[in-house]
Design goal:
- By secondary structure, the protein is an all-alpha fold.
- The chain has one domain (about 5-195).
- It is built from six helices and no strands.
- The model has no long low-confidence stretch (mean pLDDT about 95).
Length: about 200
């Protein structure tokens, strides 16, 4: 699973996106097809959260949305962001365990982000590609819109290729001891009633 991980991620993310768009229901619970405790399960769950949140972000920007609904969606998006972060950290934990037996020399370099945060960007990129492809296929817009979206789609596909290579190279470097696997927890504060001054101020 770890060898050429990016290809597996892309396949799982694409399945998750297609599964969601089979019903387009923000409230339907994901039916994860992969066994619990596996990397595949984590990846599917991660992208499904991203996909639902993508559509919540669309809905909350509706200029006609009622303020009460917008507030409810904003709160739900906050929870979703926390869930996304938790999943990223679980993926990193999985990878840390996988690489735990690697001998890491003192000169091994650090990376600017952990593998799971790069995988997070890959998940979002799959969503961007899916929705840009939808724009290219629209029949209710002019040729200029189609042409611009096709141009953007080409760039997104190039980004997908480059990011996939970068993720696999990073994992190869970690396996070889060239880079070290080090994870920093995100320490999100806005959802924590003991760290958000608005929340703990109200409590006091």
């Amino acid at each position: 699973m770890i060898t050429n991980l990016s290809a597996s991620c892309i396949s799982i993310f694409q399945k998750s996106v297609e599964d969601y768009h089979g019903h387009n229901d923000l409230d339907r619970e994901a039916k994860n097809p992969y066994p619990s405790g596996t990397m595949e399960h984590l990846l599917y769950q991660k992208n499904y959260i991203d996909t639902v949140q993508w559509h919540m972000e669309d809905v909350v920007r509706d200029p006609q949305i009622l303020p009460e609904m917008a507030l409810l969606l904003k709160r739900r998006i906050d929870r979703s962001n926390q869930d996304r972060t938790d999943l990223v950290e679980k993926i990193d934990d999985y990878l840390c365990e996988h690489f735990s037996q690697v001998t890491v020399p003192a000169h091994a370099r650090l990376n600017t982000e952990s593998p799971a945060w790069a995988i997070d960007r890959l998940s979002i990129l799959i969503l961007k590609i899916y929705h840009m492809q939808e724009e290219v296929r629209r029949v209710d817009v002019g040729e200029d819109h189609i042409r611009l979206c096709a141009f953007k789609l080409d760039i997104l596909q190039e980004q997908l290729k480059d990011l996939s290579i970068s993720i696999d190279e990073l994992l190869d470097d970690i396996q070889a001891g060239v880079k070290r696997m080090k994870v920093y927890r995100q320490m999100k504060m806005y959802n924590d009633p003991s760290l958000n001054p608005v929340l703990y101020g109200k409590q006091g």
